[in-house]
Amino acid sequence: MSLPSAPRIGFVTSTDPYNRRSWSGVHYSILKAAERNIGPVTALGPVPMVWPLRIGDNLNRRLITPLTRKRYHYSWSIVMAKIYARIFGRRLQQQPFDLLLAPASFTEIAYLDTTVPIVYIEDSTLGQLIDFYAGLMGLLTVSKRELNFIEKKALDNASLVCYSSEWAAQSAIQDYGADPAKVVVIPFGANYPSPPDYAEIADKPRNAECRLFLMGGEWGRKGVAIAYDTIVALNERGVPATLTVVGCAPPAAEAHKYQHPGFTTIPYLNMGEAADLQRLDTLFRTADFFILPSRAECAAIAFADANSFGLPVVTTDVGGIASFVEQGKTGVMLPLSATGEDFATTIQSLYQDEAAYQQMRVAARQRYEETLNWDQWALQLKRELHTRGLWPTT
Questions:
Q1: What is the predicted pLDDT for the residue at 86?
Q2: What are the residues facing 64 on neighbouring strands?
Q3: Which of 258, 333, 251 shows the shortest CA–CA distance to 293?
Q4: Cα separation, 139 vs 141, whole angstroms
Q5: Do the bridges between strand 210-215 and strand 241-246 make them parallel or antiparallel, or are there none, so unpaired?
Q6: I need a labelling partner for 112 at 20 to 30 A (CA). Which of 32, 99, 336, 357 fits?
Q7: Looking at residue 272, what is its pLDDT?
Q8: Where are the alpha helices (DSSP H) in 287-339?
């Protein structure tokens, strides 16, 4: 008599989840955390779509954009969703699964016909991004309608919808009519591969100069100009301060505006390269604050990375940030209208109060250990699956 096989998880993404650039490393982190804490995982992607995407690109460049000055989001379209459904449907027939994880895969699961429970994982709804995020601006009206239609179908097709913030979860319920009973909020974890032990960062004194660190890929959306104004204001107040930015640089036409000697930009560091990882590690360890005056944000994984180093976060109260930063405890969220002077006032107050600063450092690290790590994310997801009978309890 053969024993029943262990429950198996299929990982539905059109990209390669083992590529650390796929969804900024979140695909890889979710897959590995699920393997460690839930059960065996098989990646069902990638799904190369060279010709459909090439055709869509040519249509935009040669016809749609010249005629309308807008574009059609061909990669997230009903046609692509149906192609994905056919491809993943065939792959599901080749081997049995008990659960499907679909992170940022609304197009892949919208039309997927399967009896296997689907967990749809996201950090926002499309309604929160259309006409707001750069990649979703300037779209044809028909394209916007398709995006919202596909999002709705994905939400309906999922057995469990897992968001990284209350902000996103409420949009799914209010804007798309998602069943509140199947919507849960579990903040994402840190992607940094080797954070220090707690003992290495406990009681670390602040630096003689206030070192600010910012990591982000978009100069405008991440509010880097405001962060720059912050160090200018701090230095003018007699508080020596520096700012190091990783991931972007000022637009070439504006570079002359950002010449403060305490300002440094590093356009790109790859965590997969030992030398780059070591440089990033040094930046995290030697910083006093992680600053990110975001103009728009879904779930900045960098907050969790910063907390793993015991770094207090100073940011804006926008998007899904409130699910990552505990106001006044692990960091400070300022209103979207806050200027560099406002950020400087907040940072100066904390920097010059050693006791308050150390208390926030400890709280930031505790937040990472208790919530903002991928193992805790996966364990909470497993509990939600158990509660709903979507995964065995033994």
A1: 97
A2: none
A3: 333
A4: 6
A5: parallel
A6: 32
A7: 81
A8: 301-308
C-alpha 117: how far from its chain's center?
24
Containing domain of residue 57, as a range? 9-189+374-387
One domain for residues 309 and 321:
yes
Residues 6+ apart with CB under 8 A from 382: 37, 38, 391
306 and 229 in a single domain? The answer is yes
pLDDT of residue 5: 62
How far apart, in whole angstroms, are the C-alpha atoms of residue 100 and residue 84? 15
Alpha helices per DSSP H over 161-203: 166-176, 198-201
Percentages of the chain per state (helix, strand, coil), in multiples of 5: 45, 15, 40
Task: Kindly state the tokens that stand for 61.
Answer: 């460049």
Best CA proximity match to 82, nearest among 10, 150, 15, 12: 150
* Residue 6, number of CB atoms within 10 A of its CB: 9
H or E segment to which residue 214 belongs: strand 210-215
d(CA 122, CA 152) in angstroms, rounded, equals 13
Q: Quick one: 121 and 16 in the same domain?
A: yes
Contact status, residue 41 vs residue 29, Cβ threshold 8 Å? no
Residues in the chain: 394
Asked if residue 393 belongs to a domain, the reply is no
Decide: residue 62, CB within 10 A, 0-12 exposed, 13-18 middle, 19+ buried: exposed
Q: What is the CATH number of the domain that holds 41?
A: 3.40.50.2000
Radius of gyration of the chain (CA): 22
DSSP assignment letter at 192? -
Q: Using alpha carbons only, what angle is made at residue 310 by residues 269 and 192, rounded to the nearest 5 degrees?
A: 35
Residue 311, SS3 per DSSP: coil
Reply yes or no: is the peptide bond before residue 46 cis, omega within 30 of 0: yes
pLDDT digits (tens, 9 = 90+) for 136-188: 999 999 999 999 999 999 999 999 999 999 999 999 999 999 999 999 999 99
- The gap from C-alpha 87 to its chain's centroid, in whole angstroms, comes to 27
Q: Please say whether the beta carbons of 160 and 119 come within 8 A.
A: yes
Report the candidate in 189, 143, 148, 146 with the shortest Cα–Cα distance to residue 171: 148
Tokens read off for 147: 């995006």
Total tally of structural domains belonging to the chain:
2
> Which residues of the chain carry a pLDDT beneath 70?
1-5, 394
Tokens of 355: 């006791």
Sheet containing strand 118-122, strands side by side:
41-43, 9-11, 99-103, 118-122, 160-163, 183-185
